[in-house]
Amino acid sequence: MIVIRRLIDRHRACTAIFLPGEPPRIFPTSDHEHGRILQIYKQDRRYPDVLNDFTDFDLGPPSSTPQR
Q: Which superkingdom heads the taxonomic lineage of this protein's source (predicted)?
């Protein structure tokens, strides 16, 4: 499973990508770049048969049917 997180401090914003058994990969990104990374890795909404934050932790808006 891949985990993608936005890390923000006072001076910069980064995207962190975590894969099991691998060291974290952290690199500076803009909000737009981070959003695009989430789209690529299907973290932007619910998808059929894809487990992400929206399905695992119910962080997204409620939806009766998954959208494509």
A: Bacteria
Kindly state whether residue 62 falls inside one of the protein's structural domains.
Answer: no
Number of domains in the chain: 1
> Letter for the amino acid at 2?
I
Each residue's pLDDT tens digit, 25-55: 999 999 999 988 888 776 666 777 766 666 6
DSSP-based three-state secondary structure for 17: strand
- Which residues share a beta bridge with 28? 14
In whole angstroms, give the CA distance from residue 32 to residue 20. Answer: 26
Say if 23 falls within a structural domain.
yes
Tokens describing residue 18: 């975590």
